[in-house]
Design a protein that fits this description.
This protein has four helices and eleven strands, in the order βαβββαβββααββββ. It has a five-stranded mixed beta sheet. α3 packs parallel to α4. The longest helix has 20 residues.
């Protein structure tokens, strides 16, 4: 089973219970009706990126959905938290790319997103044999990666939030969600191919 499509989504939730705050974040992301399975960080060759709206239309209630995601929670008032997924896609469509997960405290959307994007791009660069100095900052490495002609695109989806002032649990969530059109459909307890 190799996913053919992916979409990105994010959300934030606040509740007095930690698990319920995660549920609220999933609702905002549009995924609360699915069973999420966390998978490792490979972007499949030739995988098409869908809009969130297109991706959500393809999901059914109760469906087992594979995703690369990250989340962070806090009940500390005014604490800045972030969850991010980065992606790096190779120029050669027959090769796989990388997704990365990153969560943090005290980082803005931009900083957390760039970090996740850098992680994905660095993993792909080492796979492709692109030489770079890991001590350079992200802007310099990004230029090296893109000038190599071997990495066509990098991006990230990031959700940050400030912990609820009254100490309620605040959860942030970001995900790359896979869609596989080849999944068998389940109807009335029977599996059809």
């Amino acid at each position: 089973m190799v996913p053919k499509k992916i979409f990105y989504t994010k959300g934030v939730g606040v509740h007095r219970e930690k698990l319920a705050s995660f549920e609220m974040a999933l609702r905002v992301a549009g995924l609360a009706h699915c069973n999420l399975v966390l998978v490792s960080s490979i972007f499949p060759p030739g995988c098409k990126v869908l809009s969130k709206e297109e991706g959500l239309k393809a999901l059914q209630p109760g469906e087992i959905v594979f995703a690369v995601y990250d989340r962070e929670s806090t009940n500390e008032p005014n604490r800045l938290i972030a969850a991010s997924v980065g992606v790096a896609i190779p120029a050669e469509p027959s090769m796989h790319g990388y997704l990365s997960e990153h969560h943090s405290c005290g980082e803005t959307d931009q900083k957390a997103g760039e970090y996740a994007e850098d992680l994905a791009a660095s993993m792909l660069a080492t796979t492709l044999g692109i030489e770079f100095n890991p001590e350079l900052d992200w802007d310099e490495r990004e230029q090296i990666f893109k000038m190599s002609g071997k990495i066509v695109r990098t991006a990230n989806i990031t959700q940050s939030a400030i912990g609820n002032k009254d100490g309620l649990w605040t959860t942030v969530f970001a995900a790359g969600v896979f869609i596989n059109d080849d999944n068998p459909s389940v109807e009335a307890g029977k599996i059809h191919n």
